[in-house]
Design a protein that fits this description.
- By secondary structure, the chain is α/β, with parallel strands linked by helices.
- The chain is built from twelve helices and nine strands.
- The chain has a nine-stranded parallel β-sheet with strand order 2-1-9-8-7-6-5-4-3.
- Helix 3 links the parallel strand 3 and strand 4.
- The structure holds 3-hydroxy-3-methylglutaryl-coenzyme A (HMG) and magnesium ion.
- The site of magnesium ion (MG) has 8 residues, from loops.
- This is Hydroxymethylglutaryl-CoA lyase.
- Keywords: Lyase, Metal-binding.
- GO terms for molecular function: lyase activity.
- Belongs to the HMG-CoA lyase family.
- InterPro entries: Aldolase_TIM (IPR013785), HMGL (IPR043594), PYR_CT (IPR000891).
Amino acid sequence: GLPGRVTIWEVGPRDGLQNEDTVVPVDVKLEFLDRLADAGLTTVEATSFVHPKWVPQLADAEELLAGLTPRDGVRYPVLVPNERGLDRALAAGVRHIAIFASATETFASRNLNRTLDSQMAMFEPVVSRAVAEGLDVRGYVSMCWGDPWEGAVDPAAVVSVGRRLLDMGCSQLSLGDTIGVATTGHVAALVDAFTAAGTPVSALAVHFHDTYGQALANTVEALRHGVTTVDSSAGGLGGCPYAESATGNLATEDLVWCLDGLGVETGVDLDKLADTSAWMATRLGRPSPSRVVRALRG
Ligand code: HMG
Ligand code: MG
């Protein structure tokens, strides 16, 4: 069966904007964050405290958080790769962070300039210090179903990386299909592999990019396997500058349209959200890749 309610983890301001050619002005980002919360999203990944040369689109993280008016019931997690990033996030008053690991050697090197093992050594002090400060820590695992350089990825390797992040103290794992190659059978197999290894399904979230048009089907499959937290991006923005052939995330509008139809609660107002993505598309100078946004506002 399907869950009665799904928590949407909105990643547009981070995964979406990190991949745009243009650097969006900080006041536009702040309006985006406000409009997403107005539309009923309660978890909005705001930005990344990564090296500004690696992701110049998000180099304004300090300024963004300084301008953000906190709202009751809304959390604004940020990406943090290392202790330098954690120092910056703590100084900005952040309460929720996400570390991001790779399931493959090649992407660990391309995205983090580390080996599989040395990425773990980088994350360990981040998680222990963050937990000691009372922060909530999410762990992403990228390339869970395929890697542009290495091809298919063994579910056992993904489970091993994910278990290490949970053992470090992450409260949740987000399983990333960074390049959008998974199909429903692969999704079921990986969720089952985690449960077989003793990970409660309540600790899992899914993060699908829509490169091959499978993101929504894959999400529904994950929900049928007990997952209740889903990552998506308003208007379908997104991608990873360090992963070849990564396109946008599952569009939040496409997800909400589907879940509304299935009677699964999200708390999101689809009209307000589509207005927001149509507005953002004008700011970015290109139409939203979301089918639902185009159908409603095209
Ligand atoms: P590095 O070059 O190995 O860094 O990069 P380093 O540790 O050798 O440090 C070099 C210099 O950078 C030092 O300065 C550090 O202080 C500075 P120096 O002493 O030479 O003057 N530095 C920093 N400055 C500001 N903030 C920091 C920071 N760290 C070091 N945080 C590093 C390693 C991890 C920093 C780099 O590789 C990086 O920033 N990578 C981030 C890449 C990224 O953001 N990718 C996109 C997000 S992941 C994604 O999109 C996938 C996801 O959506 C899930 C999915 O779809 O699968 C999450
Ligand atoms: Mg992503």
